[in-house]
Design goal:
- By secondary structure, the chain is mostly helical.
- The chain contains eleven helices and no strands.
- It has helices at residues 3-13, 30-37, 42-55, 58-63, 66-79, 84-107, 121-128, 143-153, 156-175, 183-200, 205-218.
- The radius of gyration is 17 Å and the shape is globular.
């Protein structure tokens, strides 16, 4: 069976997820989803699981050292060479987390980061426009101003709903209409499953915040900002 046939068979077997905050739990549990992923070629399955592990960084934050986080990201990014959609999916989420980490950092009265710390547009914008609302990125990232407001008033639930919704839309935008039965579609399904599960079972806040801190502090010198062809 070819890879394309495996993608079709796998995706056709998976139930419709619904949307975050619209269901009490995902329509398929983690165990059964993992069993379905076993239908993939081993290399594809490994890549899907590594993307999921990095993007949903709460487990990574609890289990890994700062150096381990950096190495995992470097290796994953290298392995996504030639897959611009998957690089965009990973990059979008890590950029979001870098920005939220910097908003939290600023709210705590900490100084701006120095050098290349974190991921994406938020690195340079935070360094140059540390005191500006939304680091002057509200034009490119309209959700960032609302995230800043929710952080300021301490509305953790509202912030969670916002970020989950933005992450869901990022997947829609990255896939477009061209990736329905391929590896990119499998990755998107697994990440959407994580968002639905996250909305139904709030993850421990300390783990979430620790991963954000790892992105904003531990990745000094990690120059994997995405752009150009990789963001198309």
């Amino acid at each position: 069976m070819g890879s394309s046939d495996r993608y079709v068979m796998l995706l056709a077997s998976l139930p419709h997820l619904g949307r975050p905050f619209g269901v009490d739990r995902p329509p398929i549990n983690r165990l059964r989803l993992g069993q379905r992923l076993a239908w993939l070629e081993p290399a594809d399955r490994s890549l899907v699981e590594r993307i999921d592990y990095v993007v949903h960084g709460e487990r990574l934050a609890l289990e890994a050292s700062d150096r381990d986080v950096q190495l995992r990201l470097e290796r994953l990014w290298a392995d996504l060479d030639g897959r611009p959609v998957l690089r965009r999916i990973v990059g979008d989420r890590l950029e979001m987390r870098t920005l939220i980490a910097n908003l939290r950092r600023r709210r705590l009265g900490m100084p701006p980061p120095t050098g290349a710390i974190g991921w994406g547009r938020g690195v340079e914008a935070a360094r140059v426009h540390w005191e500006a609302p939304a680091f002057r990125l509200e034009g490119a990232l309209p959700w960032l101003g609302e995230a800043e407001r929710l952080l300021r008033i301490g509305d953790a639930i509202g912030l969670e709903r916002l970020l989950v919704g933005v992450a869901w839309k990022m997947l829609d935008d990255a896939l477009g209409h061209e990736h329905r039965f391929d590896l990119e579609a499998v990755v998107a399904y697994v990440l959407r499953w994580g968002l639905v599960d996250r909305s139904a079972h709030q993850l421990p806040q300390p783990a979430t915040e620790r991963f954000d801190r790892l992105l904003s502090q531990a990745l000094t010198g990690l120059r994997l900002e995405f752009g150009g062809e990789d963001s198309q």
